[in-house]
């Protein structure tokens, strides 16, 4: 074999190996941010607006792939609060995905509160994909209270979405507002968790469908639980924390392992 042919063949082999590597390689590791309860107006309107702006600037510097906000975007939904919220949110340099909370759509949502949210903010439940992972954003108010048609529709969408993700071999993050539970999966229902029957049904669905983590807000205190390798995290807010933890957000790293860590808000210009 001539040197030229040998050269050509080694190039072909090298390209082929690179091609195989790129096909078999795992998705690139990435980071994203979980924010909770920006809730403009709960810790003081100007304060919450300012701390949300500080978080946006800080997150832009960290440069994660995207941000999720786990509900209670504002304390009282109206044209002004949502306009202010969106104006700050527009400064993110990366996509920001929103979930709705009880303050956004009411403790017992109805057609009017749901439509107001859908017109002002957008879809209240949907999914997106990133680097081969699925992120399923839910409307937990429709689980907290069974309001009939809308709850049923949401339930069947959720089950179908998880089923399709599993069929595509995707691993999934579920995002909502209410935590499923605070301490144990069998605890009684109260203001800060979901009804026991619904909670058990959801945990079973998570187990059956490659759910890696459930991200929520609502508690205004840090709640970190694990159940059968599924992480359940309600993080710190930028409005008011009941446990006196500093304001901040959670930075998730998704790679060979899936970790999250607290990042305190740089509050020097807040007061
Ligand atoms: Zn809430």
Write up this protein.
By secondary structure, the protein is α/β, with parallel strands linked by helices. The protein has a single domain, classed as Metallo-dependent phosphatases (Purple Acid Phosphatase, chain A, domain 2), CATH 3.60.21.10. 37% of the residues lie in helices and 22% in strands. The chain has helices at residues 3-24, 45-62, 79-89, 102-105, 111-120, 141-144, 149-167, 196-208; strands at residues 30-35, 66-70, 96-99, 126-130, 133-137, 171-175, 211-216, 223-227, 230-234, 248-254, 258-264. It has a six-stranded mixed sheet, with helices on one face. β6 (171-175), α8 (196-208) and β7 form a beta-alpha-beta unit. α2 runs parallel beside α3. The longest helix is centred in the first third of the chain and has 22 residues, at 3-24. The chain is globular and about 45 Å long. Mean pLDDT is 92; it is low at 14-24. The structure holds zinc ion. Zinc ion (ZN) is lined by residues 72, 101-103, 177, 218.
Task: Give a short synopsis of this structure.
By secondary structure, the protein is an alpha/beta fold. The protein is built from eight helices and eleven strands.
Characteristic terms for this protein:
single chain, 271 residues, alpha/beta, Purple Acid Phosphatase, chain A, domain 2, six-stranded mixed β-sheet, five-stranded mixed β-sheet, 22% strand, globular, binds zinc ion
Q: Classify the fold: give the CATH topology.
A: Purple Acid Phosphatase, chain A, domain 2
CATH architectural type: 4-Layer Sandwich
Bound molecules: zinc ion
Count of distinct structural domains = 1
The CATH superfamily label reads Metallo-dependent phosphatases
Q: What is the overall number of helices? A: 8
């Amino acid at each position: 074999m001539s040197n030229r042919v040998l050269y050509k063949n080694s190039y072909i082999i090298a390209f082929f190996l690179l091609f195989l590597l790129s096909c078999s390689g795992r998705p690139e590791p990435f980071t994203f941010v979980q924010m909770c309860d920006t809730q403009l107006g709960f810790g003081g309107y100007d304060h919450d607006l300012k701390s949300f702006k500080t978080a946006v600037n800080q997150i832009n510097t960290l440069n994660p792939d995207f941000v999720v906000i786990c509900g209670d975007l504002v304390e009282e939904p109206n044209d002004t609060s949502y306009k202010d919220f969106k104006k700050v949110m527009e400064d993110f340099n990366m996509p920001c995905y929103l979930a709705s909370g009880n303050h956004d759509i009411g403790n017992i949502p109805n057609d009017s509160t749901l439509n107001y949210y859908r017109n002002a903010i957008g879809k209240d439940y949907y999914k997106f994909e990133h680097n081969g992972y699925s992120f399923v954003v839910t409307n937990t108010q429709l689980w907290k209270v069974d309001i009939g048609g809308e709850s049923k529709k949401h339930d069947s969408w959720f089950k179908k979405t998880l089923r399709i993700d599993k069929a595509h071999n995707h691993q999934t993050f579920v995002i909502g507002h209410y935590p499923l539970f605070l301490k144990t999966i069998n605890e009684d229902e109260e203001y800060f968790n979901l009804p026991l029957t619904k909670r058990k049904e959801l945990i079973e669905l998570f187990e059956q469908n490659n759910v890696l983590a459930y991200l929520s807000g609502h508690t205004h205190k840090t709640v970190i639980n694990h159940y059968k390798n599924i992480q359940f995290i309600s993080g710190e807010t930028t409005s008011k924390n009941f446990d006196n933890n500093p304001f901040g957000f959670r930075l998730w790293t998704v790679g060979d392992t899936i970790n999250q860590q607290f990042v305190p808000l740089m509050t020097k210009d807040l007061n």
